[in-house]
Prior knowledge:
The chain is mainly α. It has helices at 2-23, 41-55, 60-90, 98-129, 132-158. It has five helices and no strands.
Amino acid sequence: MLIQSQSIATSLKQWMVSLLLMLLPLAGAMATDICQQRLTKEEFKARQRAFITEQAQLTEVEAEAFFPLYFELQERKRQLNDEVWSLLKKGREKEVSEKKYEEILEGVYDTRLAIDRLEKSYYEKFKQVLSFKKIYLVQQAEMRFHREVLKNFGEEKRGDKQRPREGRERR
Length: 171
């Protein structure tokens, strides 16, 4: 019983980490620029494209071939993430049975697997237009971009930018 509980706890932790990772593309809905202005979806995509292009050192030809695929993948992942959120909302209803929780979790896991398969299929497409090194650099740039978006969003949410303490630089 203890081993099963540990296994469930480990699975739940892995699921939560996976959920957080798959929600990163949704950060665009909350994105703000340095001037604290809300960005439209198109502005966000343009900034994301510019950032990734620069950081991954994509040529214009590579960028033109890559980004239609990339944004298509992001949209399909967004749709699947919407399904996950819809399932998770059902768990907030009053008097949810164990059977219903099981159905919710099965659906969430199945959708996460669908996202993984989708990402793998797009990786195959990316290989047709970018080198492995460039794909790697794109992934690194994407993570940096989302980290910056979330950092800026957090600063806006606090309402003021924290000043670094005297003698210490802000990172």
